[in-house]
Amino acid sequence: MPSNIVIAIDGPAGAGKSTVAALVAKKLGLKILDTGAMYRCVALKAIRIEANSEMHLGSLAESARIEFQPGEPQRVILDGEDVTEQIRTLQVGKRASEVSVFPSVRGAMVKRQRKLVESGGCVLEGRDVTTVVAPDAGVKIFLTASIEERARRRWLENKAETLQAVVKDVVERDHRDYTRKDSPLTLSDDAVIIESFGLTPEQVADKITKLAKGK
Ligand code: DC
Question: Is the distance from the beta carbon of residue 205 to the nearest atom of ligand 1 less than 6 Å?
């Protein structure tokens, strides 16, 4: 396996991408790039300053300082503030899905994400990483599970909302992520599909690690 290998994982909300990406990165000694966290940072900023127009959101995406620092989970720093926990709420996730439909927001994020993976040695995950951000990745995965399973997992992680509210959110998010005009979530021809139902995150990570080691 080349040390600068890039492993790209796409999939819908709640498929377990973040957990699996962290495990794979740890096993193989690679960096992690959580692209969803970057959209969530833009969303948090948009909520705070009530930015709604595409122009405003685009300039906000350009100017936001987003950094990652080591930790378990990896720390997310927005304009110098640790927002790791704040960006994980249902409200921020929904807003992230909304702001990510705008080409100006996507353009700013993709430019930064490509720079971050330029040197390789990275596991990245999101909705467009196998198709747009890193189409030449050495390993491409589409990680998925049924809507019910994904909602159940999200709910178990954070029971602040009812299960019904989480199911509704996942359905809405799927619709927006799959149908937006600019780089919708799609299955790349050369991606390996992994259905995570009935598998532990470790088992999924092992499958991906094996694929990487075969390169
Ligand atoms: O993976 P996540 O739940 O943290 O992502 C939050 C939202 O961000 C998701 O609903 C759509 C958007 N997103 C995106 O459009 N492209 C990505 N590469 C990652 C996330």
Answer: no
CATH architecture classification, 6-213 = 3-Layer(aba) Sandwich (3.40)
**pLDDT confidence band for 24 (50 / 70 / 90):** very high
Q: pTM of the entire structure?
A: 0.95
Question: In 35-51, which positions are buried (b, 16+ CB within 10 angstroms) versus exposed (e)?
Answer: bbbbbbbbbbbbbeeeb
Q: How far is the CA of 215 from the centre of ligand 1 (A)?
A: 28
Taking the CA of residue 129 as reference, the ligand 1 atom at the shortest distance is 18
Q: Is the CB of 173 under 6 A from ligand 1?
A: yes
Regarding the beta carbon of 13 and ligand 1, being less than 6 Å apart is answered yes
Give the pLDDT band of residue 133 (cuts 50, 70, 90): very high
What ranges do the domains of the chain cover? 6-213
